[in-house]
Amino acid sequence: MNILFVDDEPLGRDVLADHLENQLGHRVVQCDSAEKALEIFSREHFPLVLTDIRMPGMDGIELLNRIKEMPQGQGTDIILITAHGDMTTAIAALRAGAYDYLNKPIQLEELNSVVDRVVEHQALIRENYELTKHFKEKVKEATRETESKLEQLRHTCADIDGIGEIGIFSKAMEEVMTLARKMSKDKMIPVLIEGETGTGKEIVARMIHYGDKGRSTPFVAINCPAISPSLFESELFGYDGGAFTGAKKTGQIGKFELAQDGTVFLDEIGDMPREMQPKLLRVLQERNFFRVGGLRKINLEAQVICATNHDLEKLVKRGRFREDLFYRLNMCRIFIPPLRERKEEILPLARMFLSRYAGRRGRRFRSIDPGAERILENYSWPGNVRELQNIVDMAVLLNDAPELRQEHFSFRIAGSQRQSGAPASHEAVDSFSVHLPKEGLSLDEIEAQALKKILALFKGNKTKVASYLGITRYSLRNKLKRLSRYAVEEKP
Fold first, then answer.
1. Model's pTM, two decimal places?
2. CA distances (Å), 366 to each of 117, 343, 351, 358, 388, in order?
3. How do residues 162-195 score in pLDDT, each as one tens digit?
4. DSSP 35-95
């Protein structure tokens, strides 16, 4: 630190200056008058000025005032040296703006302490200066960051209780979520959520339950196909002791009672037994129910949300679903389009899942290869968002690279295409017949014929052949070596 030391007594000044330089490591500039000190100070910055008060001509108090008037002196700390016991002068010095004062004769320990405090004070001054100097830039930077986060939050509902992170990357899903938020405000209205398997019907149901502010009330999910028809009523409404053979003596509360003040979620309502449908309709209309074998009426204080992957109108026409219950549920109907109809969401969702699972599993994945992006965009996704999520999760689990590539998951998509009856590639649509000689044929020969045909269809592209067969290139290479005696040659 630069120190300007002003004192008209050279002997004492030299001793203290030598101590400050050689023992404390500071740079000291000496002068014997306040006038010379002002001239030096105007040319060079000094964070600390150490000056005697009583000097011929301008005294230390006036020097202090003159320094404080100068622009470069605003942040300078000034320590005044007073005669021993001159408390009046010391008080005047502090009132004038001095950082501190020292009494003559100066003790080195006291000098060390006050200089160390000045060093700390100057560090704070510099930090404050930097913050002030760059305040506008910091505000702009923070504003840009906040706007970016708000834009991100507009597309992604981050970690809502019981839901987690929801990707909203299309106009269709924005409309679904807007309607879900509206439905969360009135629990008296039953809600019907329609959509294919894997589109996220339960997530939308939880969004309705938790709303924007969140709830601590229960969300009770019931999978209708998983409940035996004979147990359906007691499962939903509970039963009193002795209501039927095998019933607990104490009875048991049902799912509707467990969900009081919260939400009952009836998943796959289209599979509800026909005989249970009028009982559910009565509960929705009357907003009360009885336990099986019970005499006490229980008011329903829960919201009822139903979901189905069936077309309920078609089920009504076939006589498998009651028309009056359908119209009751149809008061508020939310339809979630399949992922293939909102292709603009595929890549943003894939990136969101990639970031999520790479973080959880400590993988290096940060982006998706353009070739992999084309495969993801062109796939039909019969399993919808759940299938996309599972494929990305498995790709991250089994691999580790900076970039997600098509070989990390394409064989899974190819396998899904064959299971769904869709061709793995438009190039591979062809018939295949096996030549059956009279003398017989081994399975290896049949496999060799098939491989020859597939290699010809894909013009020898082994990556496409492996993808079509749902195996890795390594497995394909081993097959080709094993079947090489049947003239299935592995070309380089």
1. 0.55
2. 48, 21, 8, 8, 17
3. 566 677 888 899 899 889 988 888 888 899 999 9
4. HHHHHHHHHS--SEEEEES--SSS-HHHHHHHHHHSGGGTT-EEEEEE-TT-HHHHHHHHH
What was the pLDDT predicted at 74? 83
The answer to whether the beta carbons of residues 404 and 356 sit under 8 Å apart is: no
Rounded to an integer, what distance in angstroms lies between the CA atom of residue 236 and that of residue 229? 11
Q: How far is CA 379 from each of CA 197, 370, 386, 413, rounded to the nearest angstrom?
A: 16, 14, 14, 8
Nearest-CA neighbor of 74 among 100, 55, 99, 101? 99
State pLDDT tens for residues 117-141: 999 888 888 877 777 766 767 677 7
CB-CB contact of 13 with 7 (8 Å):
yes
Please classify residue 206 by burial: count the beta carbons closer than 10 Å to its beta carbon, then call 0-12 exposed, 13-18 middle and 19+ buried.
buried
DSSP-derived secondary structure letter, 477 = H
Q: How far apart are CA 58 and CA 61, in angstroms?
A: 8
Predicted pLDDT at 256: 95
Please report the DSSP string for 296-364 in residue order: SEEE--SEEEEEESS-HHHHHHTTSS-HHHHHHHTTSEEE---GGG-GGGHHHHHHHHHHHHHHHHT--
**Pairing, β 303-308 against β 252-253:** unpaired
Residue 149: both structure tokens together: 């986060």
Could you tell me the pLDDT band of residue 41, with boundaries at 50, 70 and 90?
A: very high
Determine how β-strand 288-290 pairs with β-strand 297-299.
Answer: antiparallel
Please state, in angstroms and rounded to a whole number, the distance separating the CA atoms of residues 395 and 278. Answer: 46
3-class state of residue 207 by DSSP: helix
Q: Name the band, by pLDDT with cuts 50, 70 and 90, for residue 214.
A: low
Say how many Å lie between the first and final Cα of the chain, rounded: 72
CA-closest candidate to residue 491, choices 451, 443, 434, 432? 451
pLDDT of 473 reads 72
User: For residue 490, is pLDDT > 80?
Assistant: no
Residue 18 and residue 62 in contact, taking contact as beta carbons nearer than 8 Å: no
CA angle 434, 440, 441 (to 5 degrees): 50
Of the candidates 219, 344, 224, 203, which has an alpha carbon nearest to the alpha carbon of residue 274?
A: 224
